[in-house]
Amino acid sequence: MNLYGALITQLARSLTGALYTDEDIKRITSGATGKYLKEFFPATQDEQDAHNRISSARNHIEAAGTIIRDMQDDLEAQDRQLNELLNTIDEKKKLADRYQALAETNKEAFEAFRQEMEEALRRELTEQANQGKTLRQIASGIIWLVTLIAGAALGTYFKDLTAWFGTLIG
User: Fold this and answer.
1) What does the pLDDT average to over 110-117?
2) Among 26, 108, 127, 168, whose CB has the most other CB atoms within 10 angstroms?
3) Which of 76, 3, 70, 16 is nearest to 45 (CA)?
4) Hey, what's the torsion of the CAs at 128, 134, 139, 141, to 10 degrees?
5) Which residue has the higher pLDDT, 12 or 148?
6) In terms of DSSP H, where are the helices of the chain?
7) Helix (H, G, I), strand (E, B) or coil at 41
8) CA 111 remoteness from chain centre
9) Which residues form a coiled coil (predicted)?
10) Which residues have a Cβ under 8 Å from the Cβ of 84 and sit 6 or more positions away?
11) Which residues contact 37 (CB under 8 A, 6 or more apart)?
């Protein structure tokens, strides 16, 4: 049986290209000098799977790191935009407060100025109304008297005047 087992082992080694079995590799590399030779022997399937998983995990971690850096850059850009917006809002608020204070100050000054101008205008109009008041009253009386006399004359002589105009036209 040992002969058949040795033949099968040698046949399997030649077909797979492996010179040592996993057990042989473990036995050789477990010794003190084997630790230095371990890198020259092929790794077991479990070790290769572990290395592949570690490599895949590193790739995923790098991709996640890139995504996180991109997100941080985007968040920093948004933070800068929001800070600029807040600064703009503060500037506009300060400007609005300044204009409001200026308007209130001007409102008080304008109100005093308006009252003084109204009073001065009222006095001036009263003085102008009083100037020539007598002359206007006399002229008004004369016009009233002439209108009264002309109206009475027309009323009295209306029929005679219409007849006279009728003869001139006709």
Assistant:
1) 81
2) 26
3) 16
4) 130
5) 148
6) 2-16, 22-29, 34-37, 45-130, 133-169
7) coil
8) 38
9) 68-123
10) none
11) 28, 29
Rounded Cα distance, 83 and 94, in Å:
16
CB contact at 8 A, 41 and 34: no
**Alpha-carbon span 48 to 91, nearest angstrom:** 64
Residue 93, amino acid: K
pTM of the model: 0.36
Give phi and psi for 72, each to the nearest 5: -65, -40
Question: Which tokens in the block code for residue 80?
Answer: 């800068």
Predicted pLDDT of residue 159: 84
Nearest to 26 by CA among 17, 14, 35: 35
DSSP 131-156: TTHHHHHHHHHHHHHHHHHHHHHHHH
Mean pLDDT of all residues in 141-161 = 88
Cα(49)–Cα(23) distance, integer angstroms: 18
Would you place residue 29 in the very low, low, confident or very high pLDDT band (cuts 50, 70, 90)? low
Residue 29: count of CB within 10 angstroms of its CB:
16
Residue type, 164: W
**CB-side neighbour CA atoms (13 Å) of 35:** 2
Q: Return the structure tokens found at 164.
A: 């006279």
Contact 41/28 with Cβ under 8 angstroms? Answer: yes
